[in-house]
Each structure stands twice: as structure tokens, then as C-alpha cells.
Amino acid sequence: MKINLVESDFEKLKSELEIIITDDIENTKDKDILESLGFEEKDESVILLPEIGRIYVGCEDCDYESIAIAISTAIKKFNSTKFKSAKINLQELNLKALVEGTILGSYSFDNYKSNKKKKTKQELNICVEKITEELENTFNISKEIAKAVNKTRDMVNTAPADFYPEIMANIAKKIAKESNLDCKIKGEEYLEKNGMNAMLNVGRASVNESKLIHLTYKPKNAKKKVVLVGKGLTYDSGGLSLKPADFMVTMKCDKSGGCAVLGIMSAVAKLDLPIEIHGIVGAVENMIGGDAYKPDDILVAKNGKTIEVRNTDAEGRLVLADCLCYAQDEIEGIDYIFDYATLTGACVVGVGQYTSGIMGNSASLKREVVSHALESGEYATSLPFNRFLRKTIKSEIADISNLANTRYGGALTAGLFLDNFIYEENKDKWIHHDIAGPAYVEKPWGYNPYGASGAGVRMTLEFLKNIK
Length: 468
What we know:
Layout: E1 2-7, E2 17-22, H1 31-36, E3 46-49, E4 54-58, H2 64-79, E5 85-89, H3 95-105, E6 123-128, H4 133-157, H5 165-179, E7 182-186, H6 188-193, H7 197-202, E8 211-217, E9 225-236, H8 245-248, H9 256-268, E10 276-286, E11 298-300, E12 306-308, H10 316-330, E13 336-341, H11 345-351, E14 355-360, H12 363-376, E15 379-382, H13 387-390, E16 400-401, H14 410-419, E17 430-434, E18 440-441, E19 451-452, H15 457-465
Parallel strand pairs: 1-6, 2-4, 2-5, 5-6, 9-10, 9-13, 12-16, 13-17, 14-15
Antiparallel strand pairs: 3-4, 7-8, 8-10, 11-12, 14-17, 18-19
Helix pairs in contact: 2-3, 3-4, 4-9, 5-9, 9-15, 10-14, 12-15
């Protein structure tokens, strides 16, 4: 879908279709037709009137989410036709929502379909009376953000046989080349030599070598330094604590945190952000075999802490533990550390499948992250640590256990586990994003398709854009 910002008189602009977003059919040209067809001014209500070249779509509010859902709904209807051009009048609508809703809503993943539908080349023209510098900037930035989300979706949706640690590392190299980023890829020899035994052990039974990926965007006179760390479990069988068969389906999505980091890094140079940004991904496969790590094993993480393994399916936190330590050991003067992971089913139980759980030690930073997430169009909520849950991950034979001694509060106990690998000087600079809910949903929702949503990308880019 090609999308253009056009300076023109709307009525004179030639187009096969006109898209009209409305919350009041009383004021439309085609009130009688719409009423006879049962059209309602509600989310995802849409009517195509091909004889007169109009698509009407309902909208319940004027906020970002409502407009993005509305234009996405209209675009899906447009995509289902053989019409080649459509136009919409910007007027009082939110340009960012229109652009992102269009690009995100027109996304499809058919790489594995043997009979692909032939796609008509289509374009949407967003019409304005005058293109100002502000409008042009918003248009261009919104396009890059949406493209980064779709790039992330593609990576997450790719089957595990076609996306393992080496492939993830190659994609990182490609992103680095396209965006002029520095790229370092470290293998298992490096992990062993540098005491990253938690991450190393998770990937021990896989035929695919684990990879530590480190991308760096370093503009001149950067005003802040931000580190993004992603869980890149390219597939998670659960290890010897094997998942049930139906729980193993969709586990290609366990790389969503790492893919989000790569997606974000693909956009930062194009957005010309005045911030030094490091993207670190632990790319690993958690498999079974004679060399698999085991429940009862004691692992020594990069910071020297010993970890009692009580469940090999609580592996993402082990990978993140070493990656967080690596970041803090290798990068000086960090202002923010954000990690991203499809870490716990407990987070999905707690806040639903559309919302990310935001955890950390700084209440003000958590509020800021949640605020920017909501502004970006993502759902997020803050989850509170407490002293009593900290006690549930204590081990009798090691420094810490990778699984709590209670079945309750699993998202928080996983976050508290990670807190053990955040150095004292960085405690209030760290935020953990549990994206287990929205990262991969097996039904379309709003402008998100079946499968990967690209969770974490928009909220982070919104935060980065607003760093002072």
C-alpha cells in the first residue's frame, strides 16, 4: 500500500474511492443509504458504496486508537477490491493515526501460502490544504515507525525452521548495513569465556549455536545513552521441563522481545534521534537432548550470582540475566535500560492478551513509560514489585531460584528475578517490559492481524522521541 500526503483541493483530487470516517451519519451525504444498510457509527463498522465510489467507516471517538482502527478497517475493505486509488480528507483527523493505521492495517503475512493472492497496486492519498513542515515531519516519522512494526511482525511470524540464532544475527547485520549501525555478533565461545553461563546453558541442546547480538547507533553529540535488551528465543520447547503439545504451538513468538529490539534499531537512524542507542539480543533455541541443561542444575551468571534451575521452561529470564549484565559491563554512562520479553503467561492472565506489563524500581519512570505507550497506541500498565514476593525466589542451595515457590504473581517474580542482575547504580534506570500478551495473538484485533503485532516498537520509539 502506497501512502501519500497530497496538497490539493479535496473535491478536485481525482480518485476512484473516497474514504469517510464518521461518528454521525446524520451529517453525511448518504444518510438514507447508510441507514437502510444498517450502518452504525461504531468501531469496525464499514460500508462500501461502489456505485458512488465511497467507503464509510464508523468511529467512536477522535483519539489515536479510534482513528487508527477506523482507517485500518477502511483500508482492509479497500484492499478487498480492485480499485487502485483512494483519498481521505485530513481535516481534523490525527495524521499519525491515519498513516500508522493504514500501514499497520494493510499488513499481511503470506510467505508460506502456495497460492498467493495477486495484489492490486493501490495507493491512499491523504489530502491537506497546505503541507506544513510539521505535517510533513509527522507523516515521514509515522511511516518509519509503522514500517519498523511490520518488519518486527515479519520476523516474529517466520517459522522456527527458517529463523534460528544465526538467521537472527544475519538480519541484525543487514539492519546495521542499511542504517549504518555498528554490529557485533558473539558466539558460544565468547559466552563461555566471559562467564555468560546462564544464556550458554539454555542453548546447550540445540544444533543451532546461540548468538549474542549487539547493535549500536551513535550519533554525534548524543544527549542520552539508552540500552535495549531483547529476549530472542527463536524457539522454546520448554527444554526438559517440556511444554504440553498445544502450548508449544506459537512458540516461534518467543523471539518477540529480540525482534522488537531489532525493529526499533532499524528505525532509530531514519528518525535521526539524538540519542546513543544500543540494541542487545540474546538469540537462543531452548531444545531437548542429551546435552540439555536440567532442573536441579546450578548455573553461574555473568555477574557471579548462582542460579538454581527449578524449571527449564523459565529460560528467558536466564538469557536476559546475562544480556543485562553484558550491557552494564560493556557500556558506560547508561541513562536507561529497557528489556523486552514474552516472559510469562502469568502476565497474560493478569492483564489480558492485549496489554504489556511494565515493571521496575522507579515509580516515576514506570509512569512515563506507560504514558508514552498509551500515546503511541499500545496498551500497557504498571505492575508493582513488593518485598514479600522477593522472598519467593530465594534458593536454599544457590543465590536465587529461576522459579518462585508460589504459583501466584508469576509476572512479578520473573521481573524480580531480573532485578538481581541490575547493578545498584542502574536500579532506577531499568524497566522490564513483559509483552507476552500482545506480542502474538491468534485472531485479528483492531489494526493488528492474526499473529505478531510488533509489540514494544511503537511505545519505545515514542519514548525515545520524547527524551529530554
